[in-house]
Amino acid sequence: MPEEATIGDYRIKCEADWREAHLFPERTLGAFLDGFNAEVAHCAKHRVPGFEDAREVLVAEARMYEQQAEEASRAHEAAWRAIEEVRRADEEALQRAERAIKAALVVSA
Question: Among 61, 39, 37, which residue's Cα sits nearest to residue 51?
Answer without folding.
Answer: 61
